[in-house]
Write a structure and sequence with these properties.
Strand content: 15-25%
Number of strands: 19
Helix content: 25-40%
Oligomer: single chain
Shape: elongated
Length: 368
């Protein structure tokens, strides 16, 4: 007999393929599926294969280590990484045919010091004030990039940036950043990159002017809404379901407190159920007393604080047997809460819900 998983993440790769195809058809330009952070918690290698099968021309990750892991898995297509620290193994990335990103002259000098001919993309900071060269530093970065192309140190394959507020289409930063990006491109007129890219999921969907040569789709590839309340219904399908096996049920009485600190006290007699997953597995403690799960076809409210290994839900007098299925979140097609519902309960974003969940959860990939 196959043992039942105490708690597991089920990832539908067919949903990811569907989402990637839908997004590519929407934009009409090549796409990059972003699979950083272990594929937003969905499994980096498996998601990468699904995205490639659906036609995604590029993959994107944050670190060189992530990029090398994809190469070790057999992926040999266009692949970009973008965040390094001094002393990172640039040579290993270059040898693996990975596009690396430079923010500064110092990083370009490190790449040149490998003695290898690299594929390099340049990132300009257009207003996020995070990674990338400021517009003031940009001419020096471009000049060093042109020098390196002349001496054979690299080929500049891309120029890119990242929006700060694309989930709010009316935010003035969007127009401002797009203007700065075009200024940066004009200043880099001596370079002939293969791709110029600015749009992430929200911008790719909501801001056609930003699509340029390539759109980087992260959250939307996983079927989640990058701009809740603003995104049109594209038929994207959430790919992740988090579920657990009900550990026990018990009857409690009016006046009984539940979980640490007794932050919830029963006002009537009821039954409660124990769900064997907690903040040690990525269940957000901030969702205490606010989130819901699905048990036997009904949404059940969380009661009391989330603990490291478990949390409690109110079964409203019902007594499902231990071993009953608990859907923590999923696509929402069967009445279960979604990752967005959990994000709102915890005062965060769905990105955090799907990327942080894990811990002792098993992960299983299906093609539903």
């Amino acid at each position: 007999m196959t043992p039942v998983a105490r708690a597991e993440i089920v990832v539908d790769l067919a949903a990811i393929r569907h989402n990637v195809r839908t997004l590519r058809e929407l934009t009409g330009v090549p796409s990059m599926t972003v699979v950083k952070a272990d594929g937003y918690g969905h499994g980096m290698v498996e998601v990468a294969r699904a995205a490639r099968a659906a036609g995604s021309e590029w993959l994107g990750v944050t670190t060189i280590d992530e990029a090398l892991a994809l190469r070790a898995s057999g992926d040999d297509g266009p692949l970009l990484c973008w965040l390094t620290v001094p002393g990172d193994d640039w040579a290993a990335a270059i040898d693996a045919g990975i596009d690396v990103t430079a923010y500064s002259v110092a990083e370009l000098d490190e790449i040149a010091a490998t003695g290898r001919s690299a594929r390099v993309q340049l990132k300009v900071d257009t207003g996020l004030s995070r990674g990338g060269a400021t517009l003031a530093d940009w001419p020096a970065v471009v000049a060093r990039a042109e020098q390196g192309e002349r001496d054979g140190s690299w080929r500049i394959t891309g120029i890119w940036s990242h929006f700060a507020a694309s989930d709010d289409p009316d935010h003035p930063a969007n127009d401002a950043q797009e203007r700065v990006f075009h200024q940066a491109l004009a200043l880099a007129g001596g370079l002939t990159p293969e791709v110029r890219h600015l749009a992430n999921s929200a911008a790719g969907i909501l801001r056609p002017s930003s699509r340029l040569d390539l759109v980087r789709f992260g959250l939307a590839s996983y079927g989640l809404d990058p701009a809740p309340g603003r995104t049109p219904d594209l038929g994207l399908v959430p790919a992740m379901t988090a579920r657990a096996t009900l550990a026990m049920t018990k009857r409690i009485h009016a006046g009984d407190g539940v979980s640490y600190g007794h932050t919830w006290i029963a006002d009537t007699d009821t039954t409660v159920g124990l769900v064997p997953a907690g903040y040690g597995d990525g269940i957000p403690r901030h969702a205490s007393n606010a989130a819901h799960v699905l048990v036997e076809g009904k949404q059940r409210a969380m009661r009391g604080r989330v603990c490291m290994d478990q949390f409690v839900v109110d079964l409203d007098g019902d007594s499902p047997a231990p071993g009953a299925d608990v859907v923590i979140f999923g696509p929402g097609t069967h009445g279960e809460p979604t990752a967005q519902d959990w994000a709102e309960a915890a005062g965060t974003i769905s990105y955090e819900i799907v990327t942080r969940i894990g811990g002792r959860f098993a992960r299983r990939h299906v093609n539903a």
